[in-house]
Amino acid sequence: MSPPTATAAEDITLSLKTTNLNDVSDQGKEILVDLTKGKPVGGYAPFAHLLPAPTLARYKKYGIDTSKGYPEAPPQAGIPTFVDEAYAVRNKDFPYIERGKNADPEKKSLFGAATEVRHLTKHIGTEIVGLQLQALTDQQRDELALLIAERVVVFFRDQDLSPQKQLELGEYYGQVEKHPQAVHVPGLEGITIIWPEYLHQVGVKNTFKQVKYTARWHTDLVHEHQPAGITHLHNDTIPEVGGDTVWSSGYAAYDKLSPALQEFLDGKTAIYISAHTYFDRNDPLNGKKHVEREHPIIRTHPATGWKSLYVNRSMTDRIVGLEPGESAVILEYLFGVFEKNLDIQVRFNWKPTKPGLGTSALWDNRISQHNAVWDYENTEPRHGTRVTSLAELPYFDPESKSQRQSLGLSLD
Ligand SMILES: [Fe+2]
């Protein structure tokens, strides 16, 4: 199967901009683009005046300075040109503490402080009402990590959340990913921006017929040596209608497979590719290459001990050990399990109940895929800040059980 070109992911969309900044008309900001080379040199983009009012109010309240411009781009010096440089960004083991592992299974501290805990579907998605994320104790944070590991994605509406506290929570959950190409909140490199208007400004022309980068099934950062665990997206500006996001459960996808196919996949590995491409230093004229890393196709979650199917259409390229045609057929089937089974998905509308407040979603990339709905067509503003915590080196424990096995649910 040929690798997907470009990318799809909502998360990577905002990193595409750096290669397009020289297409921006009327910017006149020498700090942004080195016109001699036509490459971005980092600094501030000139779009602060386009920021929606709720975002501006949040930034003003929490001391985020947009006077120099918005968003901020990382310096060009840090952007990999060659694929070996991209591998080197993070190529070694680093410590990871699974916060959900020793949490109270009953989550008394977290649930006791909430006014309501609402399971949105049987198998995936829980909304917690009446709690502010920035006020959680460490005990509640641990219990939330376990809840995310069990329910795949957890939502909090009506949040008054500072970018600084969002970053701090992400650091609690693991090493925060800092992307050498992604634009971020000024002064806070670990908080990337989800802002369709920015993409529009830098030349990404989505139409309702063709959405280039957002509306595809994907999992964040699967090509990392230690891929993404929890992603926390906080939308501070939300369309009146639409702009939903959909998640699909990797636990439940695994349980959908026949025992024979489960047995075939258990212990196998696949190749996962990066969204971005880079030149091969030894073969620079033969096109750009993805970063590729090999991970278990069925992985065990360290907090729940449950098996999860770990593939996605955008970034899982091939199953190791199979002929290309065999791999393509099996992967296509596995992608379809996530994408076609509505009973293992949750579709969430982000709208808060109180004006001026934002909504947060925290999901676990080890056990899910997601897909952003673009039905609002950027006719209304949508803006969010996102922090991704990297997790453990993926592993498959042959002794681990599926979610349904572990919960004692019917396997027929
Ligand atoms: Fe994403």
Automatic annotation (TrEMBL):
- What SUPFAM superfamilies does this protein's entry cite? Clavaminate synthase-like (SSF51197)
Any keyword Transmembrane helix?
no
Q: Which UniProt keywords apply?
A: Dioxygenase, Iron, Metal-binding, Oxidoreductase
Q: GO terms for CC?
A: cytoplasm
Q: Which GO terms describe its molecular function?
A: 2-oxoglutarate-dependent dioxygenase activity; metal ion binding
Q: Where is the TauD/TfdA-like domain?
A: 116-388
Its required cofactor(s), as named, are: Fe(2+)
Protein origin, superkingdom: Eukaryota
Q: Which Pfam families match?
A: TauD
Q: Which family does it belong to?
A: Belongs to the TfdA dioxygenase family.
Please give the PANTHER family that the UniProt record associates with this protein.
ALPHA-KETOGLUTARATE-DEPENDENT SULFONATE DIOXYGENASE, ALPHA-KETOGLUTARATE-DEPENDENT TAURINE DIOXYGENASE (AFU_ORTHOLOGUE AFUA_3G01010)
Q: What is this protein called?
A: TauD/TfdA-like domain-containing protein
Q: What is the lineage of its organism?
A: Eukaryota, Fungi, Dikarya, Ascomycota, Saccharomycotina
